[in-house]
Design a protein that fits this description.
alpha/beta; Nucleoside Triphosphate Pyrophosphohydrolase; NUDIX_hydrolase_CS; Nudix_hydrolase; NUDIX_hydrolase_dom; hydrolase activity
């Protein structure tokens, strides 16, 4: 362990991630600096009729998505998934096994590739649903959607994880890798 005053773990100029970037520059938003590939964690939550819970985000690109978000520095993807469900929905749930992983290349200039972890979540009871309290700074709506309808509403890359035999959890984890976007892909999306 490094002692105070020498470069190492306790030297604020050497901290990376949560509070400082490489070289000691303070991070504008502590806890969200990701010098490498951004990690995202999402949770597939269902109800008693096997519908999928989706939330509508209000960020720079409003859209329907599964609950979840960025993994903070020093946080595991599973812990991030649980934290994000708590933040977005006000529910503290046990996050289940990893269902799928997905690598997505940058879709626009200046963006980075990302790695998303999709976890199974619990089947929410009527009592759980009654306790949902949306975090209005991140999501402005939620909906229960049949799987076919959820696949229509969700971004294409997310829709892959919402239906079919993958969600009758088999104990296997699936990995998806999307090809890099080509110059004219926007014409066929």
């Amino acid at each position: 362990m490094a002692s105070v005053g020498t470069p190492g773990l306790h030297d604020p100029g050497r901290l990376v991630g949560r509070d400082r970037a490489v070289g000691g520059e303070p991070v504008t938003n502590p806890g969200t600096h990701h010098p490498g590939t951004p990690l995202i964690a999402r949770v597939l939550l269902t109800d008693a009729t096997n519908r999928v819970l989706i939330v509508h985000t209000i960020g720079s690109v409003p859209r329907w998505i599964l609950p979840g978000g960025l993994v903070d520095a020093q946080e595991s993807p599973r812990a991030a998934a649980r934290r994000e469900v708590q933040e977005e929905l006000g529910l503290d749930v046990e996050v289940g096994p990893l269902l799928t992983q997905e690598w997505t290349p940058p879709r626009t200039p200046g963006r980075r590739a990302r790695l998303t972890f999709y976890f199974t979540g619990p089947q929410l009871s009527h009592e759980d649903v009654a306790r949902i309290a949306l975090q209005e700074t991140e999501v402005d709506a939620m909906a229960w959607a049949e799987r076919d309808r959820a696949r229509e509403l969700l971004p294409t890359t997310v829709a892959l994880h919402v239906g079919g035999p993958l969600h009758a959890y088999s104990g296997s984890t699936y990995y998806f890798e999307h090809p890099p976007r080509r110059e004219h892909d926007h014409l066929i999306d």
